[in-house]
Amino acid sequence: MLKATHLTLFLVFTFLFVNLASAQVKDTVLKPLDTTRAIPQKAVKIDSSSRRQDTAKVKYINPGKIAGRKAIFKSLIIPGWGQLYNNQLLRDKLNARGEKTGHFWQKTYTLGKVGLIYGGFTLLTISYIDNRNSYKIFLKEAQVRAFNRLETDPTKKQPVNPDLVRYGDTNVTEAQAIFKRNTQIVIFSYFAVYAVQVIDAYVAARLNFFNIDDSVALKVTPSLMSNPNSMYGFNTMPALKVSLRF
């Protein structure tokens, strides 16, 4: 009887143990562990050396453009400075080629342009002073004559300019307008000469770096061109053929 009781208890504990183990296995299969919560995630650092890097392209630098900007800047500050700067550029270019004969003529040409610039400014200044003085003389004469025409008291009338007695009132007014217009033209000419010397300095600076070698050629030859619409029955007509090789 005792053995039967022990056997019964053993079977009950065995049954309970098997059921507990089976339930644990099923719960593990149905509910997998959340590994994202259990294991902290670390930031993955990308190795930049492993990535393919594009080779940087070498930026093209135009020396003529840089020289042109410098020539403009110098000419804006002092008229003629850009021309002297271009002369220095050409001198360095000739020295690099080993040419010594072109220095004298290039220097003479540059100094000639600078002389023309300041000669033009000098002539314009003289013309401005002369026209301005003449304008003031005729303006004063016109004012005196206008005042004398309105003044009834002879004792209060102002004396006229003896050098302008031969001019009538209309001539005085016209001369005043002419000298005033000439003064305005001279002022405009100042700006024109100033702008021309800036443009000349820029163009010369760019041309110093303009490459012309044996690979560039321009050829103009006489030729014949077909003309189907000719009214005289000729299918060809003379023409010029221009060939550019570079």
UniProtKB/TrEMBL annotation:
InterPro entries: DUF5683. It comes from the Bacteria. Residues 66-246 form the DUF5683 domain. Residues 1-23 form the signal peptide. The keyword Signal applies. It holds the Pfam family DUF5683. Keywords: Signal. This is DUF5683 domain-containing protein. It comes from Pedobacter rhodius. The lineage of its organism: Bacteria, Pseudomonadati, Bacteroidota, Sphingobacteriia, Sphingobacteriales.
